[in-house]
TrEMBL record:
Main location: membrane
Name of the protein described by the UniProt record: histidine kinase
Organism from which the protein derives: Caldinitratiruptor microaerophilus
Molecular function as annotated in GO: ATP binding; phosphorelay response regulator activity; phosphorelay sensor kinase activity; protein kinase activator activity
Keywords: ATP-binding, Cell membrane, Coiled coil, Kinase, Membrane, Nucleotide-binding, Phosphoprotein, Transferase, Transmembrane, Transmembrane helix, Two-component regulatory system
Catalytic activity: ATP + protein L-histidine = ADP + protein N-phospho-L-histidine
Residues covered by the HAMP domain: 68-121
Phylogenetic lineage: Bacteria, Bacillati, Bacillota, Clostridia, Eubacteriales
Coiled-coil residues: 106-133
Length: 473
């Protein structure tokens, strides 16, 4: 009852929220001018009050609903922020509220989540790329953390050092099992780069060049890089052997020529019998020297000139028969039978001059190492891969341990007989390069005391066969 206005007042409040968090969502004020003692006025005031109460209750219910939605959105925002803190940006906030500030905050959180997701995806892509590069590198890489434990290695390093997943987390001394490598790693952990070369026993045996450098990232540690130099070592050894062999092969005939020439100049010319014999020796050694120089030049050209082999349509059966006819007198002079087993025709793309050269080298090699009364067979036949040609003898054979090396330059199975057989030591090396130059493959089979067979296959037209040497015993 308002004494100043002489009217009845009804004031109601609508609360939003629950408990201590409840706030006033709205108020309803009903003012009625009701004369004292008027029954109709009192009924009207009561009805107005009831209406006000209903309106207030509705407002309270609506406010409570809005408050609950707001609380839900705020809770979702809190969960989204927690997810961002954990590096999980996949959660999104959906704020379907009329409040512009709340919607703006939700959009900002979602934008931050998207940006973090993009950054994480980019970082993951970089890590995946780094993993791919490391996995495909032919160079071995080992990362040792600041505590000295092997933290990571790529497949090449695992292969070089025999590492397994069980070695991850072990101290490098235990995991690497190489004193020199561990010393280099310790130096790098101390801030000093180090380089060592080690031989790791196989199988297969490897020569490794290792470089250890300090890690400059926040994690520190050391990075060990391994290069397999086994092939480089082998090539260097072959180069040294080649220089030594060439020097020896050139020196021998030159020494003989010079010695007999000096003997002739010192008076042997006056002895017709001796003079003739000495001149014949000089002539033979000069021819041998000429053959050696020519074969060295020929081998160099086969190795370096792609045009050294020029295949044309060729009947290899006819080529084999013609080569046998030309070489048969040489075999018969050594007391050997030379036979041919071939069909009427064997068409294939080949360089006739080079294949004839290969057959000549193989037959002459068999003549030199087959005792009198033996047999040499040239066999040619068509196979699905192309044309298979073999030169088979009944000679002394080759020991199994020597088979892998017979196609090397200047290699001789028995060093003691190198002067008596008359070869240059380059014949089989030239055969290998001729066959490989055709895209074919060559291999040897032999049993000591029973004979040797040198096989080679020339690919048929349109087949891209890879070159290679296959040794069988």
């Amino acid at each position: 009852m308002s004494r100043s206005l002489g009217s009845r007042l009804l004031l109601t409040h609508a609360l939003a929220g629950l408990g201590a968090a409840a706030v006033v969502a709205g108020s309803t004020l009903v003012l009625a001018d009701v004369p004292r003692g008027d029954p109709a006025g009192r009924r009207l005031a009561a009805a107005a009050g009831a209406s006000a109460l209903v309106a207030t209750a509705g407002a309270a219910a609506l406010g409570a609903r809005v408050a609950r939605r707001l609380q839900g959105v705020l809770a979702e925002m809190a969960r989204a922020v927690d997810a961002l803190a954990r590096g999980e940006p996949g959660r999104r906030v959906y704020a379907d509220l009329p409040d512009a500030e709340v919607r703006s905050l939700a959009r900002a959180l979602n934008h931050a989540a998207r940006r973090m997701e993009e950054h994480l995806e980019a970082a993951q892509a970089e890590r995946d790329l780094l993993d791919t590069v490391l996995d495909q590198m032919p160079v071995g890489v080992v990362y040792v953390d600041r505590t000295g434990a092997v933290a990571r290695s790529n497949p090449a390093a695992d292969r070089f050092l025999g590492l397994s997943p069980a070695d991850r987390g072990r101290h490098h001394v235990e995991a690497l099992r190489q004193t020199a490598l561990s010393g280099a790693v310790d130096a790098a952990l101390g801030g000093r780069p180090a380089r060592v070369t080690i031989r790791r026993e196989g199988p297969p045996a490897r020569w490794l060049e290792a470089s250890a450098t300090p890690g400059h990232g926040p994690g520190g540690g050391a990075i060990l890089v391994l290069h397999d130099i086994t092939e480089a070592r082998r090539v260097e050894a072959v180069r040294r052997d080649l220089i030594a062999n060439v020097s020896h092969e050139l020196k021998t005939p030159v020494t003989a020529i010079r010695g007999f020439a000096e003997t002739l100049l010192q008076g042997a010319l006056e002895e017709p019998g001796d003079a003739r014999r000495f001149v014949q020796i000089i002539d033979a050694e000069a021819r041998r020297l000429s053959d050696l120089v020519q074969e060295l030049l020929d081998l160099a050209r086969l190795e370096s000139d792609p045009q050294a082999i020029r295949p044309v349509p060729t009947d290899l059966a006819r080529l084999v028969r013609e080569a046998a006819a030309r070489l048969r007198p040489r075999a018969e002079e050594a007391g050997l039978e030379l036979a041919v087993e071939a069909p009427a025709t064997l068409p294939a793309p080949a360089d006739p001059r080079r294949i004839d050269q290969a057959l000549t080298n193989l037959v002459e090699n068999s003549v030199q190492h087959t005792p009198r009364g033996g047999r040499i067979t040239i066999r040619a036949q068509a196979i699905p891969e192309g044309v298979h040609i073999a030169v088979i003898d009944t000679g002394t054979g080759i020991p199994p341990e020597a088979l892998p090396r017979i196609f090397e330059r200047f290699y001789r199975v028995e060093r003691g007989r190198e002067r008596t057989t008359g070869g240059t030591g380059l014949g089989l090396a030239i055969v290998k390069h001729i066959v490989e130059g055709h895209g074919g493959r060559v291999w040897a089979e032999s049993r000591p005391g029973e004979g040797t067979a040198i096989h080679f296959v020339l690919p048929a037209a349109g087949t891209g066969q890879g070159a290679g040497v296959l040794i069988e015993s």
